[in-house]
Specification:
Length: about 375
């Protein structure tokens, strides 16, 4: 990525997809060039949480909602210490933010962090194209970076693909840290940071859990050095087929029978640990309005998603694994993609979405309570 911080609002810009289609607009945020995987998010709000979600590392996010930036940027809602998206695409950015918590405009925040974006794009047409052709590599070019489109297309096709990308260690914490329990400490959890969002350990802490957040490279000995009552595997970016260390680590936890909960990337890690495969979705699930059914209760939840890969597990039967019987516990009602797994003979389960509700609905908050119940049962 090469950037400049001058003249963002006036510079011409062009978005070039790897299949040769292009869209012209105006620079939004920093001026320069950037590359990544083009994906779309269907959320009408929560853009600040989306931008700072480490799971979006190396992705160029297209917002399907036409108006973006209306509430500006505040200092309370970021899910990490920086913006992680590789680029940002909007149709009609707010001219002036209006919210009592706003400290600066979205354009200013993108500019200050060097995020190259583009506005004035027909995001509806772009989203339809990605739905038909699938997520693909893309480049955004603005200012002096705009050249002949044949040259720009060649640059896009030289960018790395998301398939085969091992990214979790790039976004995870390098040093362990502790999020203390709110009120009386009831349990201790080791949380493996594969790209964890800030709200997740807070949701655990609200339930009396002291959370030890550990790097993605943590060993099994380091996990059990904190004497955990449970182990949590977080969301994160990249291709789960490359995540051999987290898979080995999770298998060690399963062998010990410690209560285990995984979300998003953690769901894919559990799938691999149980012997299932993973595959890349055509265009993925991203947004805060995805319908999922909890098959154990029949309840339908509106959920927050951000994943381009999924677990390949049978929906119609209980599977025998090295760690006992396993079944698909949750399924997406749009396309029947596996959205959750649970073991029937050990205290372990996972979901493919984000129950911490940052951003997004609170329908899935019960999953943290389900994790607490597993730890209570183990202790009893």
């Amino acid at each position: 990525m090469t950037i400049s911080t001058r003249g963002a609002g006036r510079a011409p810009a062009v978005l070039v997809l790897e299949d040769g289609r292009s869209f012209r607009g105006r620079a939004y945020g920093a001026v320069g060039e950037t590359f990544g995987e083009a994906v779309f998010s269907t959320g009408m709000t929560g853009y600040q949480e989306t931008l700072t979600d480490p799971s979006y590392h190396r992705q160029v996010v297209v917002m399907t909602a036409p108006h973006v930036g209306n509430t500006g940027v505040n200092d309370e809602d970021p899910e990490s210490k920086q913006i992680w998206v590789a680029g940002y695409v909007v149709r009609d950015p707010a001219r002036t933010p209006s919210n009592w918590r706003s400290r600066r405009s979205l354009d200013e925040e993108l500019l200050s962090q060097g995020i190259v974006g583009i506005s004035g794009v027909d995001t509806r047409a772009l989203t339809r194209h990605l739905r038909e052709r699938g997520a693909m590599r893309v480049g955004i070019f603005s200012g002096n970076a705009v050249q002949d489109e044949g040259i720009l297309l060649a640059k896009v096709r030289q960018a790395p693909e998301m398939s085969g990308a091992d990214l979790s260690a790039e976004v995870a914490t390098k040093e362990a840290y502790v999020v203390p329990a709110v009120g009386t400490r009831k349990f201790t959890v080791a949380a493996i940071d594969l790209g964890i969002k800030g709200m997740t350990p807070r949701r655990l802490a609200e339930r009396g859990i002291e959370v030890h957040v550990l790097p993605a490279t943590a060993t099994l000995d380091e996990v059990y050095a904190v004497e955990p009552d449970g182990v949590f595997f977080s969301n994160g970016p990249g291709d789960p087929s490359t995540a051999d260390h987290p898979v080995a680590l999770m298998r060690g936890v399963l062998e010990r029978g410690t209560p285990l909960f995984g979300i998003c990337f953690g769901n894919q890690i559990l799938g691999r640990a149980l012997g299932f495969g993973t595959y890349k979705l055509k265009y993925g699930h991203r947004g805060i309005n995805q319908p999922v059914q909890d098959r154990t209760t029949g309840k339908v939840e509106v959920t927050a998603h951000n994943h381009g890969f999924a677990v390949d597990a049978p929906l119609d039967k209980v599977s025998d694994t090295e760690f006992g019987r396993a079944e698909v516990s949750h399924v997406c009602l749009n396309d029947q993609v596996v959205e959750g797994l649970q073991l029937l003979d050990r205290p372990a389960f996972s979901v493919q979405y984000h129950p911490e509700a940052a951003a997004g609905p609170h329908d899935a908050a019960y999953l943290f309570d389900r994790f607490v119940s597993l730890m209570e049962g183990q202790r009893a």
